[in-house]
Design brief:
Elements (H helix, E strand, L loop, with lengths): L3 H18 L7 H7 L4 H29 L1 H21 L3 H17 L3 H11 L6 H30 L2 H19 L15 H14 L3 H28 L4 H19 L2 H31 L9 H20 L7 H30 L3 H25 L20 H10 L4
Helix pairs in contact: 1-6, 1-7, 1-8, 3-5, 3-14, 4-5, 4-8, 7-11, 7-12, 7-13, 9-14, 10-13, 10-14, 10-15, 11-13, 12-13, 12-15
């Protein structure tokens, strides 16, 4: 049971996430942009501008979040995000869409401190071990708010018949998230940061290289997260390809979000029952099977159901990957290391997304499923194998105590080292 002050902070955080996630433009932003551009490839280049902006801003903002606190970065994140959404609505040409995406990317970069704020709020109250449960509940709130926003957006478009207006209204609604974030209180956590920005980044790099499982979790964030995102930006185009109307697209996405939210509510329990390895394996299998299923079924309308497990993994992966990373990091390096993971994710996406655009422009939309399935399964299978080798060896081996070894006398110093080696790092 959280203390009253910490519980109030968590509730305020949930309200903020609900306000930020009520986005009526979700089913329509890709359709609006694609309708003003010449090809899928050009559409992916617009989105790549967002990720190039993140490459520039990600690492400096991670250091800023560790040195100057979480609240400021969250407020700046939502302010730039509101401006980016508005820019989408105002834009009608390729250069203007690129400019709006760069502004939005600055908002996305500043959001790196968001999960750290929740974790450190729990840490200050001595409940950090419950973070998977709270982050799962947070993801459920986000998805339910996404679903409500998508449904409301569908009704709105049916009434006004203008996709562009959803972006204008969405930008105004997102200001509410800024107002809620202004009422946050910085978690009372001491952060031991490095004296300079360069030393802060170098220390973060050391953590990635040496800390158990951190590099593999970043790899999972890259190879699983990137393919899920590419499917997300193509989803409205794919649903329209299957013959759904704009209203049906909005309703379908809203329904998928509700199902994903139901799964997110049990993220903590899933992680507790299956463990880290089992949870990661479940996500990899569900995503890979769904991508291959999209390719195998073809243009059959029932293929829309393969979006359900993809949505479930899309909801679980960021929450649980972040939970597993946070428990391996200290407050003074948390946002810096998370920003490094986001940097790697962004770099992969900058390469992959135009490749997907070229593929679908040249060969058609259906080959996207095969492409994403291969890119998900092969690297993630390697990550799972390495996890079993370096993080959680299986089958577990219990070393034979030295007192049971028949040959010769073992020194007390050797026994002390033996006992120390059994301690968890």
């Amino acid at each position: 049971m959280l203390p009253p002050e910490a519980a109030a902070r968590v509730r305020r955080f949930y309200v903020y996430q609900g306000a930020s996630s009520f986005a009526i433009w979700i089913p329509f932003w890709a359709l609006w942009i694609r309708g003003n551009l010449a090809s899928d490839f050009e559409f992916t280049l617009v989105d790549v501008a967002f990720w190039v902006g993140l490459l520039v801003f990600q690492l400096p903002v991670g250091v800023i979040a560790d040195r100057y606190g979480r609240k400021r970065t969250i407020v700046l994140s939502e302010a730039f995000r509101s401006a980016g959404i508005l820019g989408y609505g105002l834009a009608t040409t390729f250069p203007l869409f690129v400019a709006a995406n760069i502004v939005w990317s600055l908002g996305a970069a500043f959001s790196i401190g968001t999960s750290s704020y929740l974790y450190e709020t729990l840490l200050a109250a001595g409940h950090e071990s419950e973070f998977p449960r709270y982050i799962g509940r947070n993801t459920m709130i986000q998805l339910l708010s996404n679903a409500s926003g998508s449904f409301a957006g569908g009704l709105f478009v049916q009434a006004v018949h203008d996709l562009r207006l959803t972006l204008f209204v969405g930008a105004g609604l997102n200001v509410l998230a800024v107002l809620v974030a202004l009422r946050f209180s910085e978690p009372r956590i001491e952060r031991m940061t490095e004296p300079t920005y360069a030393q802060q980044l170098l220390q973060g790099l050391r953590v990635v290289r040496r800390r158990e499982g951190v590099a593999l979790l970043i790899g999972l964030e890259v190879f699983l997260g990137v393919t899920l995102y590419v499917m997300a930006i193509y989803r409205p185009l794919y649903l329209r390809f299957l013959g759904l109307t704009d209203a049906q697209i909005a309703l379908s996405i809203s329904g998928f979000l509700v199902v994903a939210a139901a799964w997110s509510a049990f993220a903590g329990r899933i992680s507790r029952v299956l463990g880290e390895f089992g949870t990661i394996a479940l996500m990899v299998v569900m995503a890979s099977a769904s991508f291959f299923g999209l390719y195998g079924v073809g243009s059959f309308p029932g293929a829309v159901l393969f979006q359900v497990p993809i949505y479930v993994v899309w909801s679980l992966q960021p929450a649980l990957t972040t939970a597993y990373l946070n428990r391996r990091l200290e407050p003074g390096q948390r946002a810096t290391v998370l920003s490094m993971g986001a940097f790697a994710y962004t770099l992969a996406l900058v390469i992959l997304e135009p490749t997907a655009g070229l593929l679908t422009t040249a060969t058609g939309l259906l080959n996207l499923g095969l492409f994403l399935g291969v890119l998900t399964f092969l690297p993630c299978a390697y990550i799972l194998a390495r996890w079993r080798t370096t993080v959680a060896p299986w089958p577990e081996v219990t070393p034979l105590p030295s007192r049971l070894i028949a040959s010769g006398r073992v020194s007390r110093f050797h026994r002390l080292l033996e006992r120390m080696s059994r301690l968890r790092p």
